[in-house]
Amino acid sequence: xxxxxxxxxxxNGYKVRLLLTQLGIAFERVEVDILxxxxxxxxxxAKNPNGRIPLLELNSDERLxxxxxxxxxxxxxTRYLPKARWQRAxxxxxxxxxxxxxxxxxxxxxxxxMHPPISEERRAQLExxxxxxxxxxxxxxxxxxxxxxxxxxxxxxxxxxxxAYTHVAHxxxxxxxxxxxxQAWIERVRSQPRHIPxxxx
Amino acid sequence: xxxxxxxxxxxNGYKVRLLLTQLGIAFERVEVDILxxxxxxxxxxAKNPNGRIPLLELNSDERLxxxxxxxxxxxxxTRYLPKARWQRAxxxxxxxxxxxxxxxxxxxxxxxxMHPPISEERRAQLExxxxxxxxxxxxxxxxxxxxxxxxxxxxxxxxxxxxAYTHVAHxxxxxxxxxxxxQAWIERVRSQPRHIPxxxx
Lengths: 201, 201
Description:
The structure is a homodimer of 201-residue chains.
Chain A: E1 2-6, H1 11-23, E2 27-31, H2 42-47, E3 55-57, E4 63-65, H3 67-75, H4 85-114, H5 120-144, H6 157-166, H7 180-190
Parallel strand pairs in A: 1-2
Antiparallel strand pairs in A: 1-3, 3-4
């Protein structure tokens, strides 16, 4: 059975849990306590040298890290990844946007606020990350103001990737009320068949 | 003709220039002066709402942002992207690693050092980014110690993505001398047919 090294509060882990569930793929979830350093033990680093969850383990030789790479792998050939080359390119574009412009600001801020105390070094970054996170939300809002989903007017892994930390952005100190298109999109994502909340293991 | 909005000193832009050249695809390069705010003008934001280069423009309706999404789009069906599903997944994994764990530390530090003065806010991040950049280089070194290239023992877009800022990491204050496997890999990448240096427009 597929094994997923995961952390229940992680949006990156949630992306994979959500897609596996929507695809109807059975998997064993292994909780990794990041705060206790369990993703940096020698045993875990042998599985993922970058020391991060989520990590998908197909067997003792085949493991895949990076949440969005896992989504793309699992979605291939399914309704969650468009077949057309240009549409797939746009899915990739939004997924790289998510990891570069969205997650490091919104997810990181959420993680810090959820796990006090906040060090001096991190405290200095709270304000810049708030500004950059709102910029990313602004880009999403503008795009969604004329569309139901990010690509091809269909629910794809681009939506899953961006939903993971957007729908809990308030936990990172972001106010989503002005973002009406994002709010409507969150409801559309939530109403997809077999949707599960982030806290479901 | 394909148009590439680009900045000559940008490693992210270089990735695309390099692959287009190796594929033998003619393109028009449009230099965007980031320091003068040219990627944040109303006209440019109409093309890429995220206000970044590189941006690939196929025509007035089709534009693609995010350097690694552009690489994947251009490489499809060519020798630079493996056909096998698992190998493609590993290419994606390394490309997301590059944008999340490598570029924000090594490229950002290089950009700041190349364009003084450095603000107080940024100065506080120089040390953490040095540490995280060396961590990313350590992950690469470990992987390359038993391999010629990142995936499938072939030169792929994963190598192009990681080469772009690794080979100029010294400009970000990183000492590559201890990383012997990375140094040997840099030479292998450099010796690929139709290779061009970063400063070539």
